[in-house]
Fold Aspartate--tRNA ligase.
Amino acid sequence: MSERVLVKQLKSLPEGPVRVSGWVETVRDQKKVQFVILRDETGAVQLVNPATREATDDADAAASVALALTEEISALASGTFLTVTGELKHDERVKLGGVEIKIATLEVAAAANPETPIAADSGLDKRMDWRFLDLRQARNNLIFRVQTTFEHALRTYWVERDYIEIHSPKLMASPSESNAELFSLDYFEDKTAYLAQSPQFFKQMAQSAGFGKIFEIAPAFRADPSFTSRHATEFTSVDAEISWIDSHEDVAHMQEELLQTAFQAVKDTHGAEIEELFGIEVQVPAVPFPRIPLAEARQIVADRGYEIPRTDGDLDPEGERQISAYVQETYGHQFVFITDYHPEIRAFYHMRDAETGLTKSYDLLFKGVEITTGAQREHRVDVLIEQAKEKGLDPAHLDFYLDFFRYGAPPHGGFGMGLARVLMLLLGEASIREVTYLFRGPTRLAP
Amino acid sequence: MSERVLVKQLKSLPEGPVRVSGWVETVRDQKKVQFVILRDETGAVQLVNPATREATDDADAAASVALALTEEISALASGTFLTVTGELKHDERVKLGGVEIKIATLEVAAAANPETPIAADSGLDKRMDWRFLDLRQARNNLIFRVQTTFEHALRTYWVERDYIEIHSPKLMASPSESNAELFSLDYFEDKTAYLAQSPQFFKQMAQSAGFGKIFEIAPAFRADPSFTSRHATEFTSVDAEISWIDSHEDVAHMQEELLQTAFQAVKDTHGAEIEELFGIEVQVPAVPFPRIPLAEARQIVADRGYEIPRTDGDLDPEGERQISAYVQETYGHQFVFITDYHPEIRAFYHMRDAETGLTKSYDLLFKGVEITTGAQREHRVDVLIEQAKEKGLDPAHLDFYLDFFRYGAPPHGGFGMGLARVLMLLLGEASIREVTYLFRGPTRLAP
């Protein structure tokens, strides 16, 4: 028998015998004819079988085979995985791709339990309980193809520019960001290990190690009790860090070029499908992205009539939506860098501008949601210790990190970006749960 | 001033003013002339300065600047990161790359503590204490460039063949492989979470989800108390899983093609440097790799005079070296698939051959060390339950996993490969500690 062909290949094949494998999406069991919609990882195709409903008196072998096939199709449960051989026919009246396969043989790989626990319109929590079934939907399959293309474009951009890929440890002897939202576990020799909240310290270590430019795409962990659409206890963090920068502006410049490249790849590869299944036209962002200092952004938001309730000088989620709306209206751009944050609302390792005292850092907003914090880091160990103390941190606890700067270090900076947030916004989804393979949150640890 | 240029670019630049940034490897402070070896992420270059040792009576401004520069160079500690401008000269007498820069200005970014805690010949444990300094060595830098090229070649192979990249969760409600060597932690709502020992269950889930072909490169965690050169408590696992296979042979075929592609990329990009710094000629493996059934491999090892002490029918590390030596002598090949393992020494989810009762699985050895286990998985849920029971596992604890096969599943299989083991063997290193960015073991949780 011929090799398996993918459903997406059928359209360009000549009529004749073919073999396809996939799962049963639906069965339409009419009296005279049976239709099966078979889906594989590339699409769906209609299979057809003229029904043989009863063995006639002078039943020959062929007729009894036909009867058995008809009964087997009638009994097929949705979700059953099977391989079908048959005759491919081109027929433009067939809405599903203009092709049809007349079934010759049918082999079940694993029959599905006929009680399917979820439907396409089940609630999100129920769908997450049965995520492996939920992922069979064409739009969910597309999400992860988009993710694959997006990530590969990021990595290719970096690799072509001589970045080194690192795998920093997720088990640490001390917290990587703060003492809050920290998972800890018993390690060997009565030690306590902490799960990395970010690769921050270790991507900076690569700068002291003379790696120059590095990237990492890896899990990060936050014991975050919140239930928003943007938070998870485990998430995929996209990180880069580069040496010999003049300011955070060099980081922003790299990131905007990187995102432009990756969005272009997504549009080229999946643009039409995204439009069909998500109703979204992928916009490849023009560079440079608009940049607005935080104080100016707050003024713009205030002028639009929204009063930010936060007293710490930062934007709140509604403020982020407002400033993004302004940028969209004014510049027709979906991205905006907000810059010049006060040290009080930034991590101790953000470098400060000697003149203004503000940090050399940015947040990047995409369609009204923060997807990245980027900054130049403080590499002068005496200044770094002062800034840590100012935040109430004990330099003794940071000693292994401070060592990275005691034996020479270049000026450097980088960013961290939440992969799921980008995907959520890119596809117009309401929650990162929809674009995460298996979401982890305070009440969600399985499957 | 001009843009920063990388050391590797100097050779092809015309003589004239340049700017380089990097760190001080050595200073040779002679009476009449000073030499600084500056290294950056691409190589090392000699900087030169005619020493001005004392201000003359009729000292003019230029002379006092020259004196200050001389004194600054004398005081430079190894490891100090700095930017130098000067005149590039081509001079074939200069052993280091045939170029030299006559220093005009020198700007220190961060001065190193003059007491460097390690030397190139320090012991491994000491070097790991100061890994960020250890990584400044050219050969260590090369390790991670090789890793970057290797991984990107793997991913590109997969992406070009329509594989989907997944990020499976590392926090789980139940063990992913066995109850041994398991890290656990307190989660929300008094739950216990476990760190994934492998992505096994979740990469199989992608098959039930109809993803077809998937890959993942991500951390995995084992509370493994052993101190061998091949084990770690956290390691980077390279995983792939594919649907609609006929047997483990389809998996092996993909893996050998994949490795051939990736080794070719490493040889093309870094072959000369690997030969120079590691004394290793990268061999691109021919396909197909040799395949030897386990029973036959044991016989070959016995015929070579080595008696395997294990009584479970498997190979031991010396047996693996012996069979690899045999394959090298007989076929001139560094790789060998050992096949047909007895179910007793394989995981419960390995499919068994209906005729022989042996598992449809393999181990892949590279230069005498196991780097991979691959297999076709059992996708028939009733058989899977029986096999789990036979291993003493309670199917109730596996229920979320067994569900993946109750609603239809394709025949499928895959492999897991330890990234550090491949790199160690490829570069002829003695331990995975040498090729891991920051190693984690029973007594090693920092830096």
